Recover the amino acids of this structure.
């Protein structure tokens, strides 16, 4: 009998974990307890030394009990939670990275931590394309104007008319699973795609029909720039005032990746001067942004509340990826997506 805590939320419901684990680990006798945290109705935030978590350490400890396996998306798996859970052997996180897990504490305790790469790649890529189109063609602005009783015929005037993707140069900062899908769609529109990513290979870029360039060259050449990089200490404020100054006059900037990639302070002035032609954001340096956030009053800004990955298939896929790795672990096999692979050498009965 393996005890499992399915700690879900209002997006990846605990029952999604239960169903996926029951199907994929059918050869094992599992018993479940569940916990539902408040995200996304309640914003995530730092908890007990981990970031982007939902719920409290006490909630997790009470629900976890003697469970050996924890499947979650947002629950805080802190050093305290790990230290007070001696039976815990495996944590599966239904996200692109286990940012809500104290990975050093888990590694020290011999707890395997897995994650769910690319679980929202299609959803996030589609959303990014939607933001690009909305910014280039004034879709959200004209919708709001018409609903308020204004027929903006002047948007058809030559000086106000939108820009087509066909023939435009679009720069993608980051070329992981999401960036590759975005590139494929952009090329179908007829756009020329530039990519800046130190981990992307030139052979891969040539195969995909995109051009791999340095970041500064990408910014100088692109009429649209879309961010798809991971947030790390090295990429914090990757696009700052100096980088923004490289953009062509009237360029459009899209960020649906992570708020910390972008320095937001220069943006209102760049938009008001027309130096930046449009801005589309799904992520922010503070979430949610405060009511007096300067960009709310700036022109040509589209804002959405961190929705890029919000599809039902994303939730289903995330739970399934976690369940597959749990099943492998219980079968004595190496899970596919392990954040601390050095722990696997210390797991008894795990086949090499």
């Amino acid at each position: 009998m393996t005890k499992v805590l399915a700690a879900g939320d209002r997006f990846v419901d605990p029952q999604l974990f239960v169903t996926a684990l029951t199907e994929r680990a059918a050869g094992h006798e599992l018993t479940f307890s569940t916990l539902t945290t408040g995200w996304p109705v309640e914003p995530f935030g730092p908890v007990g030394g981990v970031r982007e978590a939902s719920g409290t350490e006490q909630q997790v400890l009470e629900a976890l009990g003697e469970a050996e396996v924890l499947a979650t998306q947002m629950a805080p798996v802190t050093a305290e939670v790990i230290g007070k859970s001696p039976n815990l052997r495996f944590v599966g996180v239904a996200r692109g990275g286990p940012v809500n897990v104290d990975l050093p504490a888990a590694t020290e305790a011999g707890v395997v931590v897995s994650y769910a790469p690319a679980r929202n790649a299609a959803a996030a890529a589609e959303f990014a394309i939607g933001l690009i189109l909305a910014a280039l063609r004034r879709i959200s602005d004209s919708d709001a104007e018409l609903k308020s009783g204004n027929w903006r015929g002047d948007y058809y005037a030559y000086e106000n008319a939108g820009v087509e993707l066909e023939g435009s140069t679009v720069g993608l900062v980051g070329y992981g699973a999401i960036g590759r899908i975005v590139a494929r769609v952009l090329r179908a529109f007829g756009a020329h795609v530039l990519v800046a990513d130190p981990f992307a290979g030139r052979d891969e870029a040539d195969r995909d029909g995109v051009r791999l360039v340095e970041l500064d060259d990408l910014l100088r050449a692109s009429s649209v720039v879309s961010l798809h990089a991971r947030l790390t200490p090295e990429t914090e404020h990757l696009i700052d005032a100096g980088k923004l100054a490289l953009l062509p006059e009237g360029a459009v900037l899209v960020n649906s990746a992570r708020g910390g990639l972008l320095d937001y302070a220069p943006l209102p002035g760049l938009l008001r001067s027309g130096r930046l032609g449009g801005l589309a954001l799904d992520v922010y340096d503070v979430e949610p942004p405060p009511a007096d956030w300067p960009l709310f009053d700036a022109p040509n800004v589209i804002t959405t509340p961190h929705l890029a990955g919000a599809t039902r298939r994303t939730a289903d896929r995330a739970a399934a990826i976690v369940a597959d790795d749990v099943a492998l672990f219980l079968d004595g096999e190496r899970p596919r997506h392990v954040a601390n692979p050095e722990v696997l050498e210390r797991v008894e009965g795990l086949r090499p």
The domain at 121-303 is CATH 3.40.50.720 (Rossmann fold).
